Amino acid sequence: MTSLREIAIGSTAEVELITGSDPTSERLLEMGITPGVHVRVVGAAPLGCPLELEVRGYRLSIRRSDAARVAVFPSVGPRSPRVAPSSIRRPLPR
Amino acid sequence: MNVTAAGAADASPPLTVALLGNPNTGKSSLFTALAGIPTRVGNYPGVTVEEKVGRFIHAGRPIDLIDLPGTYSLSPKSPDEKVAVDLLRGRLAGMPAPDRIVIVVDATNLERNLYLASQAIEIGLPTIIALTLGDAAADRGIEVDAAELSRRLGCEVVPVVAPRRQGISRLADAILAAVPPRQPEGLATTLAAVDPAQSPAAREAIGRYAWIERVVEGVVRRRPVVRTIDDRIDAIVTHRVWGTLLFALTMLAVFTSIFWLAAPLMEGISAGVDTVAEVVGSLLPEGALRSLIVDGVIAGAGSVVVFVPQIALLFFWIALLEGCGYLSRAAFLMDRLLVGVGLSGKSFIPLLSSFACAIPGIMAARTIENPRDRLLTILLAPLMSCSARLPVYFLMCGAFVPNVPVAGIPWLRLPAVVLASLYALGVVVAALAALVLTRTVFRGPPQPFVMELPGWRWPQARIVLERVREATWSFLSGAGTTILAMSVVLWALSHYPRNEAAIEAEVASERSDLRARLDGEADAATVADLSAALQSLDTPEGLDAARRGAAQRLSFLGISGRFIEPVVRPLGWDWRLGCAAIASFPAREVVLGTLGVIYNLGDVDAGSEEGGTALVRRLRAATWDGSRRKVFTLPVALSIMVFFALCAQCASTLVVIWRETGSWIWPVASFTAMTTLAWLGAFVTYQLGTLLLG
Predict the structure, then answer these.
(1) What is the domain partition of chain A in residue ranges?
(2) Which residue of B523, B542, B546, B649 has the lowest C-beta tally within 10 Å?
(3) A29, A37, A86, A87: which to substitute to probe chain B, counting the most B Cβ within 10 Å?
């Protein structure tokens, strides 16, 4: 499983699912990191953590440790339009 | 508005309107545009979440606008968010549900903002959407069709540009006219259609965002922009080299302004207070009342007002940085540094400011939404070496630390190394305290650190000024009154019991003691110091100073100094030093003044060349009672400095901790813990120092 943490800076990835069900996972979902959405890793702080992400047209920052709970499909290129809601995927069985 | 309209308005009950929205949406700007300066600011019962209400009158109807804490969803993750949700649902004790909800929706970030909006619409109260930041959206090539959005959401959508007051009166009309919304089209069915295998929280988010994506389609038109303004600014600001440099410069500017720029203002205030004290003092007859007014009330009020420049300047910077979007970038850049001790990047500015003064630093912790991080930051702030400790360090380093090179490096002098070590000591102890606290008292599941980096925009002068006014006023009216009351109590403790006969006896015994020591003293420097002290007793000023010193030593504070001598003995201190430490409880910087009084110098300005030299001479000459053994040696000087680096001898800080946490537990805990740490630190320093230096 690839996580958002492993995505190179400048790349975009499609979210597969958010693991965990604690407040942090819940907040990630509420902030719009939902299955099917495209997230671009804009950059990282000079000390390597946290990450700067672009999702749904805005910027947010999450720690690398929290990025590990965002499972993604491998990189889909530097910039691509967001997929339509019909493409929401069911989580893959583990 | 005319008088009759206002009169009629007062007759009808006010309409309560809750202002709801995500953080960073221009909510406070809209609050100011609608209601002006808040008519009521306080705390919600039982929590330290600020309640802000502003009343305005529109079309003859009084309206109470309640500014709810910024929240991302209606399933709260923090006490702030819980208050917002409870109030909307009418579950907050003593507060009925509002009559209307105004949801602030940021046009530059419609999708995420509609998440909260769609939840709030479902409550079913009459709802109006204020679409803000349309100008910023246009700059980014985003256009929102408000009419179509209104149709799809089932409630009125009013575009507003709050700083220019565009759409404000239309919004107020809409507030009065609002009716309960229709249920948003297709929302319920979309939510029901989500895969039931998902957790409830995931179902809610997936379904709502799926619905939002459909709502937004055709409502938002994006002009393709290759590289947005945010992209270009962020590329510099979060750049490894330029971003770090810019950050360092910004922090330098913030720190310099509260450390240096505030100094002349504070001196001006002190001078003004001294003038008032002098004038009032000359009008009153000599005696307890004059002392109470001059040394208690006026000096106490002065000690409150003197903090205003630092607080105002710091909040000016915070509002400016927050307004343009840099505050969260600063937290972003510094997060890694603080995450190791269990904090987040948001604690950086409050802790940095505490090196100037813990009071504005503790107040700046208001910018930390997470209550655990905020409380921890408040408790650690007083450990940073503030500017009030510097006079103690300077005097002790200058007088008792030999000015010799360290490790053979000619420019690296021992006093400078000691000074730097004291700063490092505070930071290291704070880091250790944070590690211990996050593993004991503050243990618990990690709090989400999912921080929005808002779009760049110009800060607004009105919002900045309002923030400064609010911080200053809350300090003066909240902490200020308590600090003033405390100053009066401390004045009484250092003034009573006033026994003139005992004071005269004390002065007489002082005189005979000096004579006895002079007899048979061989050391020429000591002879000079002793005879100077003896001669000064024959001048009126010297005698007066000796009387004041005796009065101080015989006051409740002085007696308690003698009483605690067994406790301070292991630190290498005599009872006079114990007295000085206790008497410096109002504020650390007064310890030098107190030492001056205790050593019969009267009021010395230890910061001045002359006053400092006089005090150093007295301290150098001081001996243990009934012996020729000097009190002040290098280990004692080090132990004093370590004690003052770690102790909580600042009543104002403790009062501010109480105000900001809303509980007496925290200042009491803070005082107890810091005093224990200070004692242990001073003990180890003195004992090791004596062992190593002989």
Answers:
(1) 2-81
(2) B523
(3) A29
